[in-house]
Write a structure and sequence with these properties.
Residues 1-32 are annotated as: Disordered. The chain is an alpha/beta fold and 319 residues long. It is built from twelve helices and nine strands. It has helices at 40-44, 48-51, 54-62, 75-84, 89-92, 95-118, 135-138, 151-160, 180-183, 214-227, 268-271, 290-304, and strands at 13-14, 86-87, 123-127, 144-149, 168-172, 201-205, 233-239, 278-284, 309-315. β4 (144-149), α8 (151-160) and β5 form a beta-alpha-beta unit. The structure holds S-adenosylmethionine.
């Protein structure tokens, strides 16, 4: 997340005449109904944090007009934005966030592709999936995918993106409640000698953890570390701890009423959550701003302690 001018306190509006269009087909992501879904977003009555799902959705659907070199070609998002009937232009005014989302989408795609190249029959999970659709890019023809989020979001998702492929599934989950790994039916690291042949899992949790309390994030990381089979990966986005409590100053998150509760004072904190965890990769969005971005981040580093906005890949095998 980048520093912004004071927020404009605008909310995404429902368009007066939502477009009626058949969704484009992409993996199992072809949206279900041909019927128009006016005011669908309003009818969902999403609370503050769940309502933030519109921000990355808008960026993936329309953000490439500002950052063509980061275009993710998300045909599902493009279709969904039209079907939701929401005016997402206010989200697109927040260009630093649009850039963050497109950059992280590319990072997740890259991480997912290299994981599934090595494990073409393994499973992937999007924790706090919102209306994202990574399987359109990561379907190997033999792997599985699970999209999971809070019940109110999954109700909306089921209506818009019902499961069409037998290798994909939906689940409701609250990752602040311990035991989510088992409740989601994910493959578990077995005791010594029993774990041979257990497929690793690729997990993406993007745009989610910053809304949780620090102790809840630690518990999520620990549960991944304790349960995930060897070779599993957890890809997350992170903000500096200096952003905590400052969501009101954020141009697109501010108007939703959501707050940032978790940030890192150092990237090393991530792997410190559990001895089995290793920080395999860290990235900063400053790379998108060329040398001025890198220089500025270096100057601010003693205060920030971590990227303003970055990505981390955690693994459980020390590889
Ligand atoms: C900014 S949206 C990101 C959605 C999606 N990951 C994306 O990038 O498009 C934040 C998402 O986190 C989900 N979320 C927040 N707290 C959660 C929790 N405790 N358990 C599961 N999902 C949660 C919200 O419901 C929402 O869909």
């Amino acid at each position: 997340m980048q520093p912004h001018p004071p927020p404009t306190r605008r909310r995404a509006r429902t368009a007066a005449a939502p477009a009626q269009r058949n969704p484009e087909n992409a993996g199992d992501g072809a949206a279900a109904s041909d019927a128009a879904t006016p005011c669908l977003l309003q009818r969902a009555h999403l609370r503050a944090v769940p309502s933030t799902l519109l921000i990355p959705l808008a960026a993936r659907a329309r953000g490439s007009r500002y950052f063509p070199w980061l275009a993710c070609n998300d045909v599902v998002a493009t279709s969904l934005v039209e079907r939701l009937g929401a005016d997402v232009e206010p989200c697109l005014d927040d260009l630093p966030t649009v850039l963050n989302v497109l950059w992280r989408t590319r990072a997740i795609k890259d991480a997912g592709r290299s994981f599934f190249l090595a494990h073409p029959k393994a499973g992937g999970v999007s924790l706090g999936c919102g209306l994202s659709h990574h399987f359109q890019w990561l379907d190997t023809g033999a792997n599985q995918w699970l999209d999971a989020d809070l019940p109110e979001v999954m109700d909306l998702r089921r209506e818009l993106l019902p499961v069409r492929c037998p290798r994909t599934r939906h689940a409701t989950v609250d990752i602040t409640q311990p035991g989510w790994w088992q409740r989601l039916g994910l493959p578990k690291e077995e005791g010594e000698g029993d774990g041979a042949g257990v497929q690793p899992v690729f997990i993406v949790c993007e745009g989610v953890l910053m809304y949780l309390q620090p102790a809840q994030v630690q518990a999520v990381l620990r549960e991944f570390a304790q349960c995930a089979p060897e070779g599993s990966r957890l890809v997350i986005d992170v903000m500096t701890h200096r952003a905590v409590g400052r969501a009101a100053q954020h141009a697109s998150v501010g108007p939703t009423g959501a707050e940032f509760h978790w940030g890192v004072g150092s990237m090393d904190e991530l792997a410190a959550a559990h001895p089995r965890l290793a920080l395999l990769r860290q990235q900063s969005v400053s790379e998108c701003y060329g040398w001025p971005g890198v220089v500025l981040e270096t100057l601010w580093w003693p205060w920030l302690g971590a990227p303003l906005y970055g990505m981390a890949t955690l693994g459980v095998d020390g590889a």
